[in-house]
Q: What sequence folds into this?
C-alpha cells in the first residue's frame, strides 16, 4: 500500500476506474475522427475539395505534436537524470532566480554531485501542456484567419457577376480609346508619389489599410489575367479560380516546416530575462506582416506604372501584364511562406502566454508588468485580424498575377477527369506493348489498340498523353485539327468550354509531378 502523501499506482486503482477513463478517451478520439469524416463529406458536397488536403494536414500536425508529447512522457526520467554543471543551470533563466525547494529524486542525485538536472520531471510535464496549447492555438488561429479572409472576399462574387453586364462590356470595349491616367485604375495609382521610388513605399504602406483590394483593382487584374492566358475575354469565373487557389494555399498555411520549428526554438531561447524579449519579440510578426502587405500593394502600383510607361493611350481599359519580376526574387510563393511563418509565430506567442498564465498565474515572472500583458495580447490579436482581413485577400488576388497560371484554373471535376483519362491511356499503352509482339504481320493495322486516346477540352484542344498530369499540375497541347485526316466536324462553342484557352503561359512547374490517382469516377466541364 502507498503511504500517505504518495500517489496511487495502477496496482492500487480499481479496474472500473481505469476502464471508465479509457472508455471516455476512446470515445473522444472516435468523435473527433467522425467529425473529420463529416467535414470531408461537407467539402465534397460544397465542391471545396482543395480544402480536404488541408484538413488532413491539420490532422498530421496534431499527430506529430501528440507523438512529441508521448516522447516527453517516455523520456521524462532519462532526461531528468542528465546532470549539468550548476553554473550552466543558472544562466539564461526566464525569471532571473532559482527556486531549489521541493527537489525530485533525480534532482537530489545531481545535487549530491554538485550539479543540477538538465530538465526536471515537472518541467517535462509542463512542456507537454505547452505543446497541447500550441497545437490548439495553431489550428484555431489558422481557421479563424482563413475564415476572416473568405468573409471579406464574399463581395468579390458581386464584382464577378458585374463583368457579365452590358455596362462592363461597354467600359472595356477595345474600340473606346482613352488616356491611361483617365481610367479608374489610373486615377487610383498614377499619382505623383507613386511615380517616386522613395515616396511609393510609404504610400503603399498606408494604401493596404485604406481601400485594400478595391473593385477597380479586382476588375483590372482580372482583365489582365484573362487577356494574358486566354485568347479573348470570356465567361471565365475569376473569383472561383481565386477561391480554389486559396483553398489549396490553406494547406500550406496550416503546415509546420523545419525552419518554422527552428525559429520557434529561438523564441523559447530568447525568452530569457536578460534579453527583455517581451519588449521586442511580439512586434516581429506584426512588422513582417506589414512588410508583406506593403509589397503586395506595391505590386499593383508597379503593374499600373509599367502599363502606363508602355502606352499612354489604352483601348477600353488599362491592360496589366502578369509577370514574376514584380515579386521578390521572382517567386510569388515566397509571400505564402512568409505568411505561414507569421501565423505560426504569432500563434506560438499567444499559446505561450496562455500556458504561462495557466501554469504559473497571471502575474508570474513571465509577465510581471501590465505593459507586458497588454503588448502580448494586443499584438497577437492585431496580427491575426490584419492577416485575415487585409493581407490574405490581397495575397489571394495579387499572387495570381505571376507569369504562369496555376492548376486551380481547372475545376476539381475536370482535373479528376483528366486523371482518369491519363490512367486509362497508360493502361491501353501497356496492353498495346504486350499484344504487339504476338501479332502476325498480316493482321489489319486498324485492329491495333489505340495508344493515344484523346480527352477533348474544347473544339480544338486536347491533352498530351505523354505529359505528366497530377493533382497540382496539368499539361495541355494544342492540336491542329486541319492536319488530321480523320478530322471530325467542328462543334459550336459551348458555355464553359476552353475555346480560346492560351496554353503558352501554363506554369512550367506543372511538369514536375506526375503520379495521378486512377480511381476518380466523375467528370464534368467547367
A:
Amino acid at each position: 500500500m502507498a503511504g500517505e502523501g504518495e500517489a496511487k499506482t495502477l496496482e492500487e486503482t480499481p479496474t472500473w476506474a481505469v476502464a471508465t477513463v479509457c472508455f471516455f478517451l476512446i470515445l473522444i478520439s472516435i468523435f473527433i475522427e467522425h467529425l473529420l469524416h463529416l467535414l470531408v463529406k461537407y467539402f465534397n458536397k460544397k465542391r471545396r475539395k482543395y480544402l480536404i488536403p488541408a484538413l488532413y494536414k491539420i490532422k498530421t500536425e496534431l499527430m506529430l505534436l501528440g507523438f512529441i508529447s508521448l516522447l516527453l512522457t517516455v523520456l521524462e526520467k532519462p532526461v531528468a537524470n542528465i546532470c549539468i554543471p550548476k553554473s550552466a543551470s543558472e544562466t539564461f533563466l526566464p525569471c532571473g532566480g532559482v527556486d531549489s525547494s521541493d527537489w525530485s529524486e533525480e534532482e537530489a542525485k545531481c545535487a549530491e554531485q554538485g550539479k543540477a538536472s538538465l530538465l526536471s520531471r515537472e518541467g517535462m510535464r509542463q512542456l507537454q501542456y505547452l505543446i497541447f496549447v500550441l497545437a490548439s492555438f495553431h489550428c484555431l488561429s489558422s481557421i479563424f484567419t482563413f475564415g476572416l479572409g473568405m468573409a471579406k472576399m464574399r463581395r468579390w462574387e458581386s464584382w464577378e457577376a458585374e463583368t457579365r453586364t452590358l455596362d462592363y462590356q461597354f467600359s472595356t470595349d477595345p474600340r473606346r480609346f482613352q488616356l491611361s491616367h483617365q481610367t479608374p485604375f489610373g486615377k487610383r495609382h498614377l499619382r505623383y508619389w507613386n511615380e517616386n521610388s522613395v515616396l511609393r513605399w510609404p504610400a503603399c504602406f498606408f494604401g493596404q489599410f485604406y481601400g485594400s483590394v478595391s473593385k477597380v483593382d479586382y476588375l483590372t487584374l482580372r482583365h489582365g489575367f484573362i487577356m494574358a492566358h486566354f485568347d479573348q475575354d470570356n465567361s471565365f469565373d475569376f473569383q472561383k479560380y481565386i477561391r480554389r487557389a486559396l483553398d489549396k494555399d490553406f494547406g500550406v498555411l496550416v503546415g509546420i516546416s523545419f525552419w518554422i520549428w527552428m525559429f520557434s526554438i529561438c523564441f523559447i531561447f530568447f525568452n530569457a530575462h536578460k534579453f527583455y524579449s517581451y519588449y521586442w519579440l511580439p512586434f516581429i510578426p506584426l512588422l513582417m506582416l506589414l512588410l508583406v502587405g506593403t509589397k503586395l500593394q506595391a505590386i499593383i502600383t508597379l503593374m499600373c506604372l509599367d502599363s502606363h510607361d508602355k502606352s499612354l493611350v489604352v483601348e477600353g481599359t488599362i491592360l496589366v501584364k502578369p509577370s514574376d519580376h514584380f515579386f521578390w526574387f521572382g517567386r510569388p510563393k515566397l509571400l505564402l511562406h512568409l505568411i505561414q511563418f507569421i501565423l505560426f509565430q504569432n500563434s506560438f506567442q499567444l499559446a505561450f502566454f496562455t500556458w504561462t498564465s495557466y501554469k504559473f498565474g497571471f502575474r508570474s515572472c513571465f509577465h510581471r508588468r501590465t505593459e507586458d500583458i497588454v503588448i502580448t495580447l494586443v499584438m497577437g490579436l492585431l496580427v491575426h485580424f490584419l492577416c485575415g482581413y487585409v493581407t490574405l485577400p490581397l495575397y489571394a488576388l495579387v499572387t495570381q498575377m505571376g507569369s504562369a497560371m496555376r492548376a486551380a484554373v481547372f475545376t476539381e471535376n475536370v482535373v479528376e477527369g483528366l486523371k482518369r483519362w491519363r490512367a486509362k491511356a497508360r493502361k491501353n499503352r501497356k496492353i498495346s506493348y504486350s499484344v504487339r509482339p504476338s501479332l502476325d504481320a498480316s493482321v489489319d493495322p486498324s485492329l491495333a489498340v489505340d495508344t493515344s486516346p484523346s480527352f477533348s477540352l474544347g473544339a480544338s484542344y486536347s491533352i498530351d498523353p505523354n505529359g505528366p498530369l497530377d493533382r497540382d499540375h496539368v499539361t495541355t497541347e494544342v492540336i491542329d485539327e486541319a492536319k488530321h485526316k480523320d478530322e471530325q466536324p467542328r462543334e459550336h462553342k459551348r458555355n464553359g468550354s476552353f475555346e480560346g484557352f492560351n496554353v503558352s503561359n501554363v506554369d512550367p512547374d506543372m511538369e514536375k509531378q506526375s503520379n495521378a490517382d486512377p480511381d476518380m469516377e466523375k467528370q464534368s466541364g467547367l
Observations:
- Residues 163 and 169 are 7 Å apart (CA to CA).
- The longest helix spans residues 121-152.
